Inverse folding.
């Protein structure tokens, strides 16, 4: 069966510090991968998605970047965090080419920038 | 602009009652999905309804889709305290094959025991 992991679960970082959040998927090959951010009490904002290694699409201009160095690994990064980067970050995957686009989510990372 | 808008934003009911949540969207879709999120957790897929379907059932869940009104509803029957969570609709657009979903802002459901 497929599983998706995210770490760390929680993170407190000072303004101006770098960020690296990691997401890995097990039990499937060639997945679509997604990074979302969720503000408190709000819906999900799609940040990045990837259809293959090294292929990243950015949905909104911001202080973050994403990379996909391996088929089932998706990394969210920042060189210098801003207060506005605080939020709940969710990674998700879906089956490449499937018409349903049903997505499977990881447990999330709670990021607080102080 | 937001593709999915949900109504109500918050809903509080007693255990055993039915809960109805609504979702409206703006552009043509391939399918519409409903997800559930327990506090502080990731989202879990509940049910998917395709654009050529009008109603779908899964256990205590019933989803309807009206493409002429660009709206969907999620009904949870005989609610339980464990149904307390946020519920999100998400649409897969009809054009393009990006695998992207557009999520609504969600409805927060509280079921009181």
């Amino acid at each position: 069966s497929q599983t998706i992991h995210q770490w760390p679960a929680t993170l407190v970082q000072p303004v101006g510090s770098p960020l690296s959040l990691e997401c890995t998927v097990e039990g499937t090959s060639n997945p679509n991968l997604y990074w979302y951010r969720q503000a408190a009490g709000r819906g999900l904002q799609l940040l990045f998605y990837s259809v293959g290694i090294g292929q990243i699409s950015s949905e909104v201009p911001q202080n973050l970047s994403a990379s996909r160095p391996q088929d089932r690994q998706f990394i969210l990064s920042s060189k210098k965090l801003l207060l506005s980067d605080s939020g709940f970050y969710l990674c998700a995957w879906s089956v490449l080419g499937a018409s349903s686009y049903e997505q499977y989510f990881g447990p999330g990372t709670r990021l607080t920038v102080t | 602009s937001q593709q999915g808008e949900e109504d109500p934003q918050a809903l509080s009911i007693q255990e055993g009652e039915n809960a109805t949540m609504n979702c409206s969207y703006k552009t043509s879709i391939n399918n519409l999905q409903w997800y559930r999120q327990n506090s502080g957790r990731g989202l879990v897929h509940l049910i998917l309804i395709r654009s050529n379907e009008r109603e779908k059932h899964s256990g205590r869940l019933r989803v309807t889709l009206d493409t002429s009104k660009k709206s969907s509803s999620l009904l949870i029957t005989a609610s339980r305290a464990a149904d307390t969570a946020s519920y999100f609709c998400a649409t897969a657009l009809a054009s393009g094959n990006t695998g992207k979903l557009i999520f609504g802002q969600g409805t927060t459901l509280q079921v009181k025991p």
